[in-house]
Design brief:
The complex is a heterodimer of chains A (115) and B (113).
Chain A (H helix, E strand, L loop, with lengths): L2 E3 L4 E5 L4 E3 L2 E3 L4 E8 L5 E7 L5 E3 L5 E5 L4 E6 L8 E9 L8 E2 L3 E6 L1
Parallel strand pairs in A: 2-12
Antiparallel strand pairs in A: 1-4, 3-9, 5-6, 5-10, 7-8, 8-9, 10-11, 10-12
Chain B lengths: L3 E4 L2 E4 L5 E7 L5 E7 L5 E9 L2 E4 L6 E3 L9 E3 L8 E8 L8 E2 L3 E5 L1
Parallel strand pairs in B: 2-11
Antiparallel strand pairs in B: 1-3, 3-8, 4-5, 4-9, 5-6, 7-8, 9-10, 9-11
Classes of the chains: A mainly beta (115), B mainly beta (113).
Chain lengths: 115, 113
């Protein structure tokens, strides 16, 4: 069965510093991996995804993520954090071989950027 | 504007009442989903539909019902059988195909009073 884990409930970073939000996954086939951001009382916004190809994926708002097959990880990164990046971040995984496979979301990581 | 519209944003339900949350999309997506999010929690799948007139139960379908009579619409009914319905409900849609991105509406808050 597929699963995704976000080991940190909260990440605190000073503005201007690099940030990393961790995600690990487990699937039986090739993974399709996604990152979303959620602001208070809003829906989830798509940031980026990995399907195939280059292991470093660039997305919205200066975020990027690195797919690491050997470590089964897909960590979200940004070189310089902004206060406006403070939000709830979700990693998600889907098995790539079947269009009937469900997308599974992690439990979320709250990112807090202090001025 | 293209997108996913959920209504109402806030809904209050009395004990024993059924309520229906609306979800409409004009993205021409085949698949639609309903998720439940409790405060500080992740997302749990309630129901999903990959084509019109077909839908499947997710992980927490008990106490909920859906219909998919039109491609654009996927309403969710929270029945009186759902014992703890207070939550944030998110509708989403995507093109068919597992590599395609799922897009979300802005959510609806349901509170039992």
């Amino acid at each position: 069965a597929q699963s995704v884990a976000q080991p940190e409930d909260q990440v605190n970073v000073a503005e201007g510093n690099p940030l990393t939000v961790k995600c690990t996954y487990s699937v039986s086939g090739n993974p399709y991996l996604f990152w979303y951001v959620q602001y208070p009382n809003r829906g989830l916004q798509f940031l980026l995804k990995y399907i195939t190809g280059d292991n470093l994926v660039k997305g919205s708002y200066g975020f990027e993520a690195e797919f690491n097959k050997s470590q089964t990880s897909f960590h979200l990164k940004k070189p310089s954090a902004l206060v406006s990046d403070s939000a709830l971040y979700f990693c998600a995984v889907r098995e790539g071989y079947s269009s009937a496979s469900k997308i599974i979301f992690g439990s979320g990581t709250r990112l807090s950027i202090r001025p | 504007d293209g997108g996913i519209t959920q209504s109402p944003k806030y809904l209050f339900r009395k004990e024993g009442q059924n309520v229906t949350l609306s979800c409409e999309q004009n993205l021409n997506h085949d698949a639609m989903y309903w998720y439940r999010q409790d405060p500080g929690q992740g997302l749990r799948l309630i129901y999903y539909s990959q084509i019109v007139n077909d839908f499947q139960k997710g992980d927490i379908a008990e106490g909920y019902s859906v219909s998919r009579e039109k491609k654009e619409s996927f309403p969710l009914t929270v029945t009186s059988a759902q014992k703890n319905p207070t939550a944030f409900y998110l509708c989403a849609s995507s093109p068919s195909g597992s590599g395609n991105t799922i897009y979300f509406g802005e959510g609806s808050w349901l509170t039992v009073v």
